[in-house]
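Summary for the steering committee. One of the milestones for this cycle was to obtain a three-dimensional model of the protein with S-adenosylmethionine bound, which we needed before selecting residues for the alanine scan. The sequence and ligand used are listed below.
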Amino acid sequence: MTLKGASWSGSGIPRFNYMRTLSQPNDLIITCGRGAAPMLASELKQLGYTPRVVEDTAWAVIGSLGDALRLNLWLRSAQRVLMPLHTFRARNADELYKGLVAQPWEDLLRPDGYFSITTGVDMPGIRDPRFAALRTKDAIADRMTKMCGQRPDSGGDRNQTVFHLHWRNDEATICLDTSGEPLSRRGYRIQTGAAPMQEGLAAACILASPWRGESAFVNPMCGSGTLAIEAALIARNRAPGLLRHNFGFMHVKGYREEDWKKLKRDAQAGEYEHCKSAIIATDISPRALGAAKANAERAHVAEDITFKVCDFAETPLPPPPGVIYFNPEYGERLGDPENLEPTYRRIGDFLKQKCTGYFGYVFTANLPLSKRIGLHNKRRIILYNANLEGRLLEFELYTGTRDPGPLGAVEQ
Ligand SMILES: C[S@@+](CC[C@H](N)C(=O)[O-])C[C@H]1O[C@@H](n2cnc3c(N)ncnc32)[C@H](O)[C@@H]1O
């Protein structure tokens, strides 16, 4: 990650108080997977914030803890919403410990609670970031023991209070990770197909297109249905965070459930009663389609999606305009690249011959295979599925005059 603009420090919170922090403007840092930053910036702008670039996978906005709750509820392409608590100079692990042990962790943590530490460390002399995490954990635990006579448990689970240490160039910033588990874990995936896409990545792929729920969305080779489900959530204007029952902010001292419930009620009131667009998900594997249906039911969007077991070339296509998304196997984890060549060729033929009037998208991590599609791509966006670099290829499948019509234009 390269440091590009605004710093991580933010204004910081000298003494944490839930009620005060709920409305007090601070800096928030919002992170995303590599490549998803433009889509995340669009989302932040749409929600009324002015994002400032921090790193190629992070934006800063001015916002309170209340804003953090709102962002956790609404953001589709983000991974974490972090709230910087304290920034200080730390040239080595001892200075890190000293800076952290002096902080009033008792304001934020319950002595009988549980916390975990994540890190982003780039410091000469600190070869293993786990060492920085350990010193951070020790400092917090020691302060808690001193002030409360008891310390909370700690470990690797991110299902309660999570702190993120960002430490580079002799400057350490300790943040409250208000998300806890990454936002990609929406909570609807109970069954996975082979090589599923992360939910945040699927959302980023859709948000990279002009589609916002007004026209057909077609997803052959749907696997466990991630793209179709994310599309249905967008088409319904349903906040993705509604599906999840646990966030980091729920474990801070003083948290009031009513604040979250109010945000959820407001979000639900803004949902569309019906999905305006046809959403179609198909897969050749009955097992994958079963998983897609089960996941869509869990996300409460099963009624918005038409499912079919079939070869991708038999996928029913509503009249254009619309978008069609493929996420074929790419040989990294599934299938043999050579055996996949004919599949990629057939995808190209299908797009060319059957999908006129659509925008076509193919997400793949295999560049040589993607060339077999045999169509000129209009855009190529690098996006990561976990640590795997992939590409979202965009094909404009217009024959005559170019008219994106009701698809509209994407703001980037
Ligand atoms: C990489 S997975 C898709 C993962 C999906 N995006 C998700 O999030 O779960 C590729 C899928 O293509 C399906 N598939 C492979 N060949 C197919 C074909 N000829 N027609 C339709 N589906 C096919 C596989 O069954 C598999 O579910």
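Key point for the committee: Residues 193-197, 220-221, 223-224, 226-227, 283-285, 288, 311-312, 327-329 surround S-adenosylmethionine (CB under 6 Å).
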